[in-house]
Amino acid sequence: MRAVLVTKAGGADVLQLEDRATPEPGPGEVLVDLTAAGVNFMDIYAREGRPPYGRETPFVLGSEGAGTVAALGSGVSGLSVGDTVAWTGVPGSYAEQVVVPADKAVPVPPGVDPMVAAAVMLQGCTAHYLASSTFAVTEDDVAVVHAAAGGVGLLLTQIVRLRGGVVVATTSGGEKAELAARAGAQHVAGYDDYRDVVREVSGGAGAHVVYDGVGHATFETSLGVLRRRGLLVLYGAASGPVPPFDLQRLSSVGSLFVTRPTLGDYIATRDELVGRTDELFGWIRDGRLDVRVGGTYALADAGKAHEDLAGRRTTGKLLLVP
Question: What is the spatial distance between Cα 245 and Cα 242, in angstroms, rounded to a whole number?
Fold first, then answer.
């Protein structure tokens, strides 16, 4: 089989497509023929060797995908050869065949395209936990969604709307603003004027929650648009990490809350993982959640996919296909 390896920490040029022996599934594992693998910022961080994502080289990159079960390891129940499954958090997913722990292999129901399933696992589960668990959006809650035209942003906007919330979406304008509006955002603004929009929409009270995957560039303004006892959910750092922060400040600006969640803690059990994906796949099947695939690339072009993602030249989700 062919797989994309990180030969050493560095730029996109360190990615090499190589032939490797087909792996064998061990106890509690399944071997999957890949349909598509998701491309994520964490893959770029792993390629660059950034802690905690970097690993000893060489290694097969990737952590998310979907495909068809080709073989079962011992002790696996509830799955059969030929089943379509999807996963996230499985190292080595940039490969034609992937060994997946059975407890991370989620059945993809009829009516859901496996390509879409591959595209929604990491970002969809992230958007799901952000809007339903970290801050459980209810009717008329005002939610700021930063980078609303990105992979998580488009899904998060839709899920906040499904839960009855009011979305103030931020984008850099142009096509991205149009995408956020088509995803259901009632208000779309730029990063320089969204504070005025929040003030108007909330009657001066401020947002109930800000979902911030941008980090350094937006952290201060995100705090500034929250209402008393509002919550800033910092789930990413696309513009760089937030500098050290004095918690005492929170008491002087409205007893605010700040949290830094991560997906692993919200799909820590099989039941929680399947509960989230069941709802996501149900929305997709019913046409209530649109998953935008922004581009597909051959495995051999993984480096180009990384460059396009890092260069902000894409919207929605990027996929690698065998």
Answer: 8
